[in-house]
Amino acid sequence: MKFTFAAIFAAAAACLVSAAPSHPIGQRATPLAKVYSSCTKNNTVALTFDDGPYVYMYDISKALVAAGAKGTFFVNGNNYECIYNDNGKRVKYLYDKGHQLASHTWAHKDLTTLTWDQIHDEMWRVEEALLKITGAYPAFMRPPYGNYNDLVRQASYVRGQSLAIWDLDSEDSLGATVAQSKKIYTDAIAKKPKNILALNHETIETTAHQIVPWVIAQLQNKGYKLVTLAECLGVDAYQSVASPATPDSTWHC
């Protein structure tokens, strides 16, 4: 269903305003958001990419699209670079190509060290940016470093989002060489899993130019379908979808 950007923006803002003050730390009434660490659909692989938007995004997207595949990009608002301006164009490009966009929070802080209000701020600011740039309100959030606690899950539930972790880490962000990352994938594929939810980082040049093209071929040769996270789970990628907003003076970090 499509809504106007203004309506979605107002509803999301109202959610933040009403939710944050009414659920103090330690309150048990708020349910916990779902946490997904693996796909559920057989013969699917979700290649996911953290820490963007970044310059290598175009090459990753082109490799995926050329193979008839899709990826999932967990973007920050102001980590390596600000999400607006040229990066806003990159985000819109990904969205228009059919990849899934999801939240990796605003500034890549460890959410388990933050207060209730601070967690909501980290989440809301990147959601706001995605709403402005694409008109889509994400249904998934990946906590930085994969760290979360009950307070983070409660905040995510209030925001209508599920948490997304992984069951395969290419270890590119930990300094793994190309050969080491390839071995991680090769060893995993050799076990013939029903599905894979893989963590990669679009900020790593070797991931974009050496790992992604290689692993696409490896996975497809084994009969896996490369899909978005939402597709590998059989759920919606976004809570709502509308038309993007027009850039104005608020488009800054």
UniProtKB/TrEMBL annotation:
A GO cellular component entry from the record: plasma membrane
Chief localization: membrane
Domain NodB homology: 43-227
Domain of life from the UniProt record: Eukaryota
Protein location: Cell membrane
Gene Ontology terms: biological process: carbohydrate metabolic process; cell wall organization
CDD domains: CE4_ClCDA_like (cd10951)
Key words, A-Z: Carbohydrate metabolism, Cell membrane, Cell wall biogenesis/degradation, Glycoprotein, GPI-anchor, Hydrolase, Lipoprotein, Membrane, Metal-binding, Signal
Organism this protein belongs to: Tulasnella calospora MUT 4182
Signal peptide: 1-19
Protein name, per record: NodB homology domain-containing protein
Cofactors required: Co(2+)
InterPro entries: Glyco_hydro/deAcase_b/a-brl, NODB_dom
Membrane topology: Lipid-anchor; GPI-anchor
GO molecular function: hydrolase activity, acting on carbon-nitrogen (but not peptide) bonds; metal ion binding
